[in-house]
Amino acid sequence: MMKMDTDKIMDDGISNSQVSYTTQILYDPARKKEPSPTFQTERDTCLSYFSKWNEANQVDFVEQLLSRMCHYQHGHINAYLKPMLQRDFITLLPTKGLDHVAENILSYLDAKSLCRAERVCKEWSRVISEGMLWKKLIERNVRTDSLWRGLAERKGWIKYLFIPRPGVTLRQHKFYRELFPKIMKDIEAIENNWRTGNHNLQRINCRSENSKGVYCLQYDDDKIVSGLRDNTIKIWSRSTLQCCMQILTGHTGSVLCLQYDDKVIISGSSDSTVRVWDVNTGEMVNTLIHHCEAVLHLRFNNGMMVTCSKDRSIAVWDMVSPTEIGLRRVLVGHRAAVNVVDFDEKYIVSASGDRTIKVWNSTNCEFLRTLNGHKRGIACLQYRDRLVVSGSSDNSIRLWDIECGTCLRILEGHEELVRCIRFDSKRIVSGAYDGKIKVWDLQAALDIRAQTNTLCLKTLVEHTGRVFRLQFDEFQIVSSSHDDTILIWDFLNCSPQEETTAPSSGGSIVP
Predict the structure, then answer these.
(1) Cβ atoms within 10 Å of 149's Cβ, excluding its own
(2) Fewer CB within 10 Å, N side or C side of the chain?
(3) CATH code of the domain occupying 198-490
(4) Residue 349: what are its φ and ψ, rounded to 5°?
(5) Can you give the residue ranges of every domain in the chain?
């Protein structure tokens, strides 16, 4: 198949119609001698025969000629053929009624290449415009990248993508062409805010009457669900920062852990019970009594729940419905309180005050291996894919490869017990009893060449007590503390001026 030199056209910014198909002579034309009459006669005879042959015979004849020529002559022929072999297929396809094929080809380009392509010629620019290719590029990024998806929802331009809602009409190509660089600017600003610690801070004062402290939380775009030291669960509105439902009461001890989905909130307490609540009504629908001491952590997903306790055991539960939850297996092996668990379809991972992390098979619950390295008890961890990140009362954070059990990196910087830790594909965020939240560069931490002193990007100081729990996404951190507050650190909705001014609420940002 004949192939066009697209890179040359796109880089030079010229169309196929502008390319001069003149023969490139490898020697000085002025020195070329006029052909003799004899040569002209013989050449015309050969051409006469050539025109009478079929295509296969013509090709065979030319091959025979080329095989008898020297390298210098081959170079001359190559220079002559090169422009003849080029084809501007993007321009040619619409003339054949194949606009959709041209659009489909260009739709695979990234932003930089698409920008070059629309400058090649008017026909390429027309295909890009009529094919709405900048819109399709934005939609592709929104489908595959959570940062793009979150921006689309928060900035409101998602309503102009995909199939619009009733009453919303799609914009013209120019709108999407101008939207793309604005999105890139927003993304750059968010990443810069994470690096510099620039944020807008919102504070929820929980106003506990008796015991103060917020031990656990989970949030979405509408609400924050928190478990408190005063035995209650409170649900806060993201828009008003006020308690938006009745307070959930029933536990007779501090609420130490919780998780919710679109149907239930499940909580664990120092009263040794696990309780199940209807997320919409707040009604308690089930109480699980198994552990004989405080339930320190729990996780549930896809019909399976894992709980762990101060009683040194791990319980694996089958969840048929909120009211039908049965104990499948009890895992025993830790020699101290099991402080945290995490799991997926392959592994259950647990961490304990006995300084170890243990790995179990999720299907048959069999013990697989122990990860050793922390010098004191382990308070928190997260597991995803092959990576485990753990925090300990030895004040350090460790990164582990779960498959081979090796420690990949040790992060040091907190001055007291590391109580909570979360990570995504870019960063690790940790909270500790020193009241500080630290943001770490995950990709650099996984690179053995990276210097240790470059891994902590920022230390955020706003809490006045121990940090008990945090979660984060691409735009924010939500954290809770012994100081009876929930803080929302917003890295999206903050002005550039805040980078050079003191943070809100009189707090400080320490490098």
Answers:
(1) 15
(2) N
(3) 2.130.10.10
(4) -120, 130
(5) 198-490
